[in-house]
Design a protein that fits this description.
mainly alpha
Length: 118
């Protein structure tokens, strides 16, 4: 899969973010405020539409910065390796949903020349 993060984005290399992590942090970028708000809202709505366990794993790992062991305990998963797999699966599902969201793809294309998979 082609890397969707443009080369001219500040802090890209500092965090070595994946596309999903980068999309979940729109305020890291210096850009038009209205587009940032629309992008943030679209990402939040997309995450909210996910399965409860997937949403909870993403929230615990990426928003609260919990460890996989802590997330496993909170969600009721037996081992941290299972929590890691569940988070990886949730992020893959989120990636598909984000790429299917026309608001997100329109903003990314307008601001950064990023086109979704056709």
């Amino acid at each position: 899969m082609k890397n969707m993060i443009p080369e001219n984005i500040p802090n890209q290399k500092k965090y070595r973010s994946t596309e999903i992590e980068w999309l979940m942090q729109p305020y890291e970028q210096e850009n038009d405020y209205d587009d940032d708000i629309m992008l943030f809202d679209a990402v939040a709505e997309t995450v909210a539409s996910m399965d409860e366990t997937d949403k909870q794993m993403i929230y615990l790992i990426y928003y609260e910065r919990r460890t996989f062991q802590e997330a496993a305990r909170i969600v009721g998963i037996s081992a941290k390796s299972h929590a890691w797999r569940k988070t990886k699966s949730a992020v893959q599902k989120l990636e598909v949903l984000l790429k299917q969201n026309p608001v997100i793809m329109d903003i990314l294309n307008k601001k950064y020349g990023i086109l979704g998979e056709q």
